[in-house]
């Protein structure tokens, strides 16, 4: 099973594509599905659930929450976490209350990295490959940090445009989503990825320009 664990749709304020098109692109690239992780919202969940059923794809319900120290991915969530600006402790506690997995995305990138010592917090893992960011040094640092601190390693495209989906993903031999989650938590997954074409990194800017024109 191959899953892109960091995907944004048009329900994020800085992304363009529908959940259907993001999932379709993931399947086109040979993946089995995605995690939908829009910024501080789960408004796209219903459309994503419908699209995943229609396309026979795997879907993980998630959200990227902006805490007071940086972004935190909540994976396998049950409901929206309305805690933008809250402390990492509070956000992580709520993710765990829902039975979710708390991941720090792009932890060592600047800008957009985590602004505190990750070891202070009860996170489950960190993203060790981000396909959107063009340089690899912060990914290598994240990989080494995760290995040294026995953290879950994840990978994702961080796509804000459907075409960028699927450039990074995690893989394991799971038969279903429950087994995938179990193997992820047990750190029994493989990381795959390559950097997406650089022009995809400008999608948030394009979305901002579209808003100004509207």
Rg value = 16 Å
> What is the end-to-end distance?
40 Å
Q: Please mark out the parts with pLDDT under 50 across 5 or more consecutive residues, or reply none.
A: none
Backbone shape: globular
Number of strands: 9
User: For the report, how would you describe the main beta sheet?
Assistant: 9 strands, mixed
* SSE topology string: EHEHEEHEEHEEHEH
* Percent of residues in β-strands: 15-25%
Number of helices: 6
- The strand order across the widest sheet is 7-6-5-4-3-2-1-8-9
Question: Helix- and strand-based class?
Answer: alpha/beta
Percent of residues in helices comes to 25-40%
Let me know the average pLDDT. 95
Characterise the protein shown here.
By secondary structure, this protein is of the alpha/beta class. The protein has helices at 19-28, 45-55, 88-97, 137-148, 177-185, 203-213; strands spanning 2-7, 33-36, 58-67, 70-75, 101-104, 125-130, 152-156, 168-171, 190-193. Helix content is 29%, strand content 23%. Helix 1 (19-28) packs parallel to helix 2. Helix 2 (45-55) links the parallel strand 2 (33-36) and strand 3. The protein starts with a strand and ends with a helix. The chain contains six helices and nine strands. It has a nine-stranded mixed β-sheet.
């Amino acid at each position: 099973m191959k899953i892109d664990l960091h995907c944004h749709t048009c329900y994020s304020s800085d992304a363009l594509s529908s959940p259907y098109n993001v999932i379709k692109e993931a399947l086109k690239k040979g993946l089995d599905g995605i995690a939908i992780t829009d910024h501080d919202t789960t408004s796209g969940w219903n459309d994503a659930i419908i699209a995943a059923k229609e396309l026979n794809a795997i879907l993980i319900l998630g959200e990227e929450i902006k805490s007071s120290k940086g972004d935190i991915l909540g994976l396998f969530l049950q409901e929206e976490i309305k805690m933008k600006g809250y402390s990492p402790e509070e956000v992580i506690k709520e993710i765990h209350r829902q039975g979710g997995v708390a991941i720090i995305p792009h932890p060592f990138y600047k800008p957009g990295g985590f602004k505190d010592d990750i070891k202070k917090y009860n996170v489950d893992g960190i993203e060790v490959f981000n396909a959107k960011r063009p340089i690899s040094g912060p990914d290598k640092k994240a990989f080494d940090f995760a290995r040294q601190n026995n953290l879950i390693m994840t990978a994702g495209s961080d796509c804000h445009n459907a075409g960028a989906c699927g450039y990074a993903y995690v893989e394991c031999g799971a038969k279903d989503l429950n087994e995938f989650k179990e193997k992820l938590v047990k750190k029994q997954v493989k990381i795959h990825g390559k950097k997406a074409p650089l022009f995809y990194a400008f999608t948030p800017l394009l979305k901002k320009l579209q808003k100004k024109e509207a």
